[in-house]
Amino acid sequence: MELPEPPECPVCLQPYDGDSTTPRVLACGHSACQTCLKLLPQPFPHTIRCPACTQLVKYPHPQGPSALPKNIDLLRLASLLQCPDHQNPQNPPKPIEKQSIPIHFIPNLWSHEFYLAWKDWVVPEDALVVEFSAEDGLCSVFCGRIVGSSLDSWGLSVRCSMKGNEKVSLVRVGGSLCENDSKFNYSYVAKVLWVLYGMTDRQLGLILKASCSKQSQICKVYGLWCNPDDQGVYIVCERYAGSFLEKFGDWRNGFVGENESNGLLDTTNFAMIGMEICESVSALHSEGLFSGCLAVRSFNFDDFGHVHIDLNEALVMSSRVWKMITKAILGAKKRKELEVSLRNDASETLEFVSPELLFELLQKNAIDIECGSKFEVGYGSDVWSLACVLLWLLIGEPFTELMGNYLHCFVPIPSDGKGSDYAGLYMNWMEKVRTSLETKLVSEFVPLQEILCGCLEFDPGSRPDVIDVWKCIRELIIKPKFDIMVSLARAIEKNTGHCLFLGELSQLRKETNKILEKQLVNDLQEKDDSNRGDVDQVGEVMVDKDLVEGLSGGHVKCIDLKGHLDCISGLTVGGGFLFSSSFDKTVHVWSLQDFTHLHTFRGHEHKITAIVFTDEEQPLCISGDSGGGIYIWGITDPFGQEPIKKLFEQKDWRYTGIHALAISGTGYLYTGSGDKSIKAWSLQDYSLSCTMNGHKSVVSTLAVCNGVLYSGSWDGTVRLWCLSDHSPLTVLGEDTPGNVTSVLSLAAYGDALVVAHENGCMKIWRNDVLLKSKQAHNGAIFSVGMEGKWLFTGGWDKVVNVQELLGDEFGIDATSLGSIACDSVITSLLYWQGKLFVGRADRVIKVYFYGL
Predict the structure, then answer these.
(1) 3-class secondary-structure state, position 36
(2) What residues have CB less than 8 Å from 301, skipping those under 6 apart?
(3) Looking at the DSSP assignment, which residues form a beta bridge with residue 672?
(4) CA 317/CA 311 separation, integer angstroms
(5) pLDDT single digits (tens) 657-672
(6) DSSP single-letter state for residue 151
(7) What DSSP letter does each residue of 805-829 carry, written as one string?
(8) Are 296 and 392 in contact (CB under 8 A)?
(9) In angstroms, how far apart are the furthest CA atoms of the chain?
(10) Of 57, 172, 190, 224, whose CA–CA distance to 115 is shortest?
């Protein structure tokens, strides 16, 4: 009777034993072993895709899979099936070989889907020229200009219709990956995407979508840019020169007053500007966004005189209000001090906070206010702030004084100790606003006066829509019966949008608030500098502390292996050993457990140029030298002093030497030679089986993958050969226009082929199609290492570039994750089980690995 197979993990196919392979139950009901769950990619924060049903499920963070429950039933079944009483003595079970699970060089930072969605929003590093400007800079006091020459290769140039030397504004949204004391330097794109991936809400995506709308009166957002000086990541936004305060700063008495030239009311100017303001706010609402708090600074004039909402300024203003309220509450011990602080800040910044939003801020500062709890922040909050902006344009400075009285209504420290009558105080303030309007305005403004007072209702649900305010202002210059051009805006459902003010980008991180509290406690008398350069970071992203320390705190470590007397020419692993060859004519054997030196193979009379390991019939290390000698070393315990076999190529007086070696897995050894040929040697009797010709110069590199032998040559081409009969399949690069550049190294994995050239160019092929060509190094690329999605290249410029190959059936893209700076030329690379071995020209082998 055949026994059922024990339950096994769907990823590594190993049976559950409760020790090395422990089943953990996911939220969908399926199980996988704890080891595999740690290695599964996370397409979104705190989620993984179930390997059984492919459903996205929650992943415990930061505890990891150990926080998931064990599948006791599977463990019990596995133990029963492995019990000796249930074993068939005639057919004992065969030991199951452990399947190798790809180990990441560094942990996954983001998913492929995330990269595809956001890669085009990364502003190139050299696309901005940043100048310090205390006069017109935003929170970061930076003034940026788009460099025209950098836009040619920028994918956003068409979508954003940018011009060279265009002014932009920058607002910091987070800090990039810190690299103090780290061997690994993250790439520019990785720094930006890491900040994006750490964001938890949809605010930035909605902002980018809104800025791209053709009908939206919102300043364009070009993307995100990382400043190389402070490693901060910034939103890059279009910046117009015509700010409201610059244009109307001298209009102390508002628009509606006697004109000095003719004594007439300036009704037309107010109506035109007021309509534009309403249209820009309505456009923001139509994109599912609302500011929550508008300020005079939030609006700018474009080159055609139209009003736009500056999203960067809105974010800076939101952060400034957060900071203002926090400082006022923490720094004022009495009601009068808090009132004066809030009033002074409001009078200088002209930022208008609606009652429900102010209640929200006070509650977030641990001040419980029941009066505003029933009102939610929504589109109506923008209506309230919009009315305040229009009233400031109408009345001028007297309205700023009224705003100080407004804040007096909501000071959370009562004078009598019994609580404040918020509703009563607010009604008194409304009466003062009405009286001021009646004194200032004439009869033709009565409808506008009523609708503006309606916008200031305490209950957001009682306030009119933005379109109603727009219509009322329009009637000042066009009477209703003649207004045939008006088009009604589509209705917007209230309280369904996303609030910029309460979003992640606008709020100070908790650590910043703690620092702020400490500063205020130590020095309550310190004067608050409320200018626009005061806030130096907005919406710093909260990330897992352990992960950041692991990625950036020097946890990509390095070990030096020394012993060779000349340049390292090759690296290979097998049988638990690392084998290194050198121009010093020796092969060194190192332990992969503790990297100690175990043995040295000597015997070559020329420089060793290539090395491979095979374990087909017996474990062998094979090395080839520049004189055409092929030495086969037996891997036994103890190691022998002499090779078990020596092979020699037939010498040619013009060309000589072995330049590359490869093992087929079918009993053949392949050599790439200086005589332009590839030779196949039988590993059974060590005879020469066949010679493959076709290259026009030295065969410099070989690779075997999926039944295909790849050969690269100094003639600039790569030839493909069938392993079964050694027949030619195709030639890559033969039709490539331009100068011929030698192929120095190549690597194949799956259906991807990476070819490195002498001029620093790297090309990625799939079958016979060139998918990508990029300048990867400043100089020759001497070595390429690839396993799974990890791609490593190194060469003359003394830098190891680490890239991630991501793609689907339509294409492959190489994403640069970072680099490792070296002190010498890189001559050979090998990636094995999460460790990167780097052979250098200075005779040192560097071993890089991620871990504690």
Answers:
(1) helix
(2) 240, 242, 243, 244, 247, 307, 308
(3) 660, 678
(4) 10
(5) 899 999 988 889 999 9
(6) G
(7) EEEETTEEEEEEEEEEE-SS-EEEE
(8) yes
(9) 114
(10) 190
- Secondary structure of residue 427 in the 3-state scheme: helix
The CATH-assigned architecture of domain 112-239 is 2-Layer Sandwich (3.30)
Encoding tokens for residue 214?
């053709």
DSSP 150: G
Burial class of residue 57 in the structure, from the number of CB atoms within 10 Å of its CB (0-12 exposed, 13-18 middle, 19+ buried) = middle
Q: What is the CA radius of gyration of the chain?
A: 35
Distance CA 570, CA 251 (A): 77
Mean pLDDT computed over every residue of the chain: 76
Q: Compute the distance between CA of residue 501 and CA of residue 317 in angstroms, rounded to an integer.
A: 9
Length of the chain: 852
Instruction: At 813, list the tokens.
Output: 């893209």
- For residues 76 and 733, what is the distance between their CA atoms, to the nearest angstrom? 58
Order across the sheet with 586-591: list the strands.
Answer: 568-574, 577-582, 586-591, 597-602
Domain ranges for the chain, please list them. 23-86, 112-239, 242-507
Q: What are phi and psi of 72, to 5 degrees?
A: -65, -35
Residue 356's Cα: distance from chain center in Å? 35
pLDDT digits (tens, 9 = 90+) for 813-826: 788 888 999 999 99
Query: Which CATH class name applies to 242-507?
Result: mainly alpha
Cβ atoms of 693 and 676 within 8 Å: the answer is yes
Tokens found for residue 502: 């309460």
Return the pLDDT at 715.
Answer: 92
Dist CA 702 CA 784 (whole Å): 11
Cα(first)–Cα(last) distance of the chain, in Å?
49
Q: List the alpha helices (DSSP H) in 497-638.
A: 510-522, 545-552
Give the pair of three-digit tokens for residue 814: 């190489």
Q: Which residue has the tokens 């130096």?
A: 536
d(CA 235, CA 344): 30
| pLDDT value of residue 524 | 37
